[in-house]
Amino acid sequence: MNYTYLIVEPHVLPGVSLVRLNRPKELNALCLELMDELVLAIKSLDQDEATRCIVITGNEKAFAAGADIKQMSTKSPIDMLKIDQFTKWDQIRKTRKPLIAAVSGFALGGGCELAMLCDMIIASESAQFGQPEIKLGVMPGAGGTQRLTRAVGKAVAMEMVLTGRFLSAREALSVGLINRVVPVELYLQEALQMGAKVASQAPLALQLAKEAVLKAFDTSLEEGLLFERKNFYLLFATDDQKEGMNAFTEKRSPNFKGN
User: Quick one: 73 and 177 in the same domain?
Assistant: First the structure.
């Protein structure tokens, strides 16, 4: 498929596909059309058996500097309800394969929310994370109050959401929002290498393990443990479980096939 606002690079490394947001003049602002393409691209890669991990990035200056304000500034509540833009975010959240955000420069508003929608975040030293919607007279609407609070805690989330303050990459690392910080010239390479490590694991185990971790945010500890246990047992029906355990006892590397 030809994309207008994305550059999609399947299989840049074994098992790893790359999606680049591509509106550089607008700092990769998340217009409705870009989000439509992003949903289609991620869905296609999620269905691609050769892709086991998806990396999402922008460019060195901006991962995504927020939503496209020009598209929203004159809308009414009914307009926003009809557009139903947040359904796209729900679709991305349902992606079965692991998602890694490679962030450099601005990750603000919807950009920060998109990064948090991913399962891991690798950031460059220039990265800045923020939810500055309050300065526009609104508030986060794509998970910024919920995922941010779960990631960094109430105090930091309140400060970011109520004042619009940005977090530097180092601050984001210190409060647990991201996985690691690397020099600008290495952030994408680091994310792709992380993707390769993920992609080398058993695909069905990756899927069920991701489901179980996300379940921790949606349920009680008791229910979460029950969900985890069922997924654990289910993996004993896979060929990859036999291969992984046989490889361990035979002191060799496993050859996972996704069965």
Answer: yes
Work out how many domains the chain is built from and give that number: 2
Residue 178 pLDDT class (50, 70, 90 cuts): very high
Catalytic residue among 62, 113, 142, 195: 113
With pLDDT > 90 as the criterion, what percentage of the chain qualifies? 88
Using DSSP, state whether 160 is helix, strand or coil.
helix
Active site residue 250: no
Cα maximum dimension of the chain: 65
Measure CA 45 to chain center: 14
Nearest CA-CA partner of 6 in 51, 75, 55, 49: 55
Mean pLDDT of 126-134: 97
Active site annotation includes 60: no
Q: Which of 110, 111, 130, 144 is catalytic?
A: 110
E strand or H helix at 20: strand 16-21
Domain span at residue 19? 6-199
What CA–CA distance (Å, rounded) separates 13 from 34? Answer: 25
Distance of alpha carbon 30 from alpha carbon 18, whole angstroms? 18
Q: 30-45 burial, b for 16+ CB within 10 Å, e for fewer?
A: bbeebbebbbbbbeeb
Report yes or no on 259 lying in a domain: no
Q: Is the dihedral of CA 182, 185, 190, 191 positive or negative?
A: positive
Active-site hit among 29, 105, 133, 142: 133
The residue written with tokens 């949606």 in the block is 218
pLDDT at 68 over 90: no
67 is a catalytic site residue: yes
